[in-house]
Hints:
This protein has about 140 residues and is of the alpha+beta class. The chain has two helices and seven strands; from the N terminus they run H-H-E-E-E-E-E-E-E. It has a four-stranded antiparallel sheet, with no helix packed on it.
Amino acid sequence: xxxxxxxxxxxxxxxxxxxxxxxxxxAKAAGESYxxxxxxxxxxxxxxxxxxxxxxxPDQLEVTIEDRQLTIAGRRTAPESEAEREYLHRxxxxxxxxxxxxxxxGMEVEVAKLEHGLLHIDLTRPEPEGRVKRIPIVSxx
Length: 141
């Protein structure tokens, strides 16, 4: 962790604070383990993130993007009957979660779909525009 900080503290890398923040967020997100998820390639420009969110309804899930960070949150409220139950074994997780992914530049969410206890989030990177930008040259004298 110290090596990363030293790398971005170099006087030759000015203005890379945003990149440093993204790396720190990615490192933090790597330590999370619930809920389990898959990331799969979908063609040349697509990616699908699938999270196992059995027991969550669409209104208990929230998918947001802020500053290239995709965040999926699940909020659970225990039903009134839950307090009265006596479990002999409780292996099904009944807790909320927040899982984050740092997206590459240009990635966009196409759709988020809940299906059979799996939340699928399809991302794509639009085809880059093939235009040439002309840069004006200013004369200094």
